[in-house]
Hints:
Layout: E1 8-9, E2 17-21, H1 31-40, E3 44-48, H2 53-63, H3 67-74, E4 81-84, E5 88-97, E6 102-111, E7 114-119, H4 124-134, H5 146-160, H6 163-182, H7 186-217, H8 231-294, H9 299-304, H10 308-332
Parallel strand pairs: 3-7
Antiparallel strand pairs: 1-2, 2-3, 4-5, 5-6, 6-7
Helix pairs in contact: 2-3, 5-8, 6-7, 6-8, 7-8, 8-10
Amino acid sequence: MDVASGPRTWHYGSVQGNLLLLDGSATPATPENVKSALADGKLLWLDIKPADPDGIALLQDVFGLHPLAIKGVSDFGQRPKVEDIGNCVYLVSYGVVGQGQDTVEVHIFVGDNFLVTVRMDHCHALDSMMDRLGQPGGKLPANRPPRLVLTHNILAALIDSFFGPLSEFDDKIDTLQEQIFSNPTNDQLQTLFEMQRWLVNIRKVVTPQRDMVGTLVAGMINIPGVTPESDPYLRDLYDHTIRVSDTIDSYRDLLSNAMSAYLSMVSNNLNVVMKQLAIIATVFLPLSFLTGFFGQNFAWLVGQLGGLPTFLIVGIGTELVAVIGLYWLFRRRRWIGPGA
């Protein structure tokens, strides 16, 4: 089915958004024409950004959405969910956007002849899909209900947006583990905490999003246009969500292992330092005894021990023998040298 109108910018107060008419008609995207298209049963996709009071008023006045749905759009920061609100199905889904790998929240309304997406921030998955359908020759498969195609593609784009950041996250874990085994530092510990915080935030939205898609697969709530032939596409969404959820759980285990490795390396380095200090103290223990013993100010000791040979043999020789004996003992017990 060709898309003849392409993306059009409309103004409803201070609202900005895009409108696609998917029945081949070329109609200016104004609130009046939206009402006309809805009355004529023409299928359209309306993407609202940002969700300011004017955009919410448009949803209430033109689409006549349920007050609870309007309240939901007014309060971003919700967990993923799916609800049947009378004249449409209301979904809340998340994706990943931006270099900082932040999450973007998208509210989706699927009716008999319309699909509305509402968001606060930029979302590459939706923007690229809108641009692709708006190009000349942009089309949806004619053998499937367009509403389901759009809904499936939007949800798939949002879910699949997690795979790229998670792949980069995997490489970052590998690099961090190599650095930890090479030379653990405080900067690596800070990086570990930041990565754990990001993974926890992602898991908070992926887990309920998995349950939301599972509700659709189980048929507890049916999207308009869904037929028995649509089940494989819903199961495909569920499979992708499960893969994202399982990947997050495996990366959480890897981060826990990296934290354990960091603590073990720091502890091992501390043990090495303490062992070195203990060896130095042990070496100087007999030397301190010998110098203390011969340094006593007794007349007999000072009078009897004199001359260069006595100094070299008794004074220097005993200290050398003590050091050599301790070195041999440390090597024999593998406290120093190979295998220490």
